[in-house]
Amino acid sequence: MQDLLWLLLPVAAAFGWFAALRGKGRTGNCSDSMLGSDYIKGLNYMLNEQQDMAIDVFIRMLEVNSDTVETHMALGNLFRKRGEVDSAIRIHQNLIARTSLSNEQRTDAVLELGQDYMKAGLFDRAERLFKELIENNVHLSSVLPLLLDIYQQEKDWDNAILIADQMGFVGDQSARSVIAQFYCELAENARAREDVEETGRLLKKASEYDPHCARARLIQGNIALHREEYQLALESFEQVAERDIELLPEILDDMQTCHTRLGTIDAMIDYLQRATTRYPGISPVLALADIMNHQNGNESAADFIAGELGKRPSMRGLSRLIDFNLSRAEGTAQANLKILKNLTEHLLENKPVYKCHDCGFCGKALHWQCPGCKHWNTVKPIHGVDGE
User: Fold this and answer.
1) Domain identity same for 82 and 10
2) What residues form DSSP beta bridges with 381?
3) Other C-beta atoms lying within 10 Å of the C-beta of residue 333
4) 48: exposed, middle or buried (Cβ count in 10 Å: 0-12, 13-18, 19+)
5) 354 - beta bridge partners?
6) Count of the separate structural domains present in the chain
7) Does residue 308 form part of some domain?
8) Cα separation of the two ends of the chain
9) What is the pTM of this model?
């Protein structure tokens, strides 16, 4: 609170200076205006940490005109940045209520008030003001991203699409690639309602906006797998990896299920062998080792993983190697391996699995929209000893 009061002192001085000019214009006596009772009262309220009452005094004593609008704006913005949103709203509402404002000044104040409402979580009020500005074709470069942010927070994907379609970029991301994600969100909702036809239509729209949208193919693959259309599911999963190789760990288990049901496990082995040459992570190695263990025994699988760990060191790989050796160990060797197994599990227990390439947000689950920076499709598997 003390910091805020000190920040307000220069603004209070500005109010006093404007009041002085007004007083000088009327009487020629600057000191009488500067030391007027209202101004002194406002300062006392500030120093006594009664900021709401101080604001009321300063607004009342300073007329809104072409010379003072910027001062009001500065004070309102100051309060919003400090988290004193109620005070910011009162100041900007006071501005808009004045008939003396020019059209440009009024639209500036409307934009500021909309941001106040948004900061306060009053999205319906902010939306109404932002739509007014769009209808008047003013401040579009500022308003469109703000309105899009509201729709994303409310998960109103239909309106989000309408707004993003008017933008070339959403932040530094292509608007079309972001719109494809919105259609995927709608497709997930339709899928939850078991509306197969609508889900397909929405996924088609996603691919139209972004032909490289791997998420759309992933959803298609999951739907086909659920319907036991294994060949179609495999085709979709392979297209996922073609569009975004970083999603390979997300599809390997489902791909193996499809090949097992189709009796084409050799094709899965060929796919995994190719994948190990183009993907630096440990997931295809572990999948291939599991198949080798099933077909040839754990010694063969252990030897394969041991060789690969020299190329791509991995705690997950080490943990699986220990598993394969535990079943063949006895006595002291087995006890020592159990100690190592517990240690690797402990080290991996609280490690994040995914990381946003833009802001560094880390987590255990895949998020299509980063919870940190709100960018789309930037959260990927972590690579390195603790990850892939």
Assistant:
1) yes
2) 354
3) 12
4) exposed
5) 363, 381
6) 3
7) yes
8) 47
9) 0.83
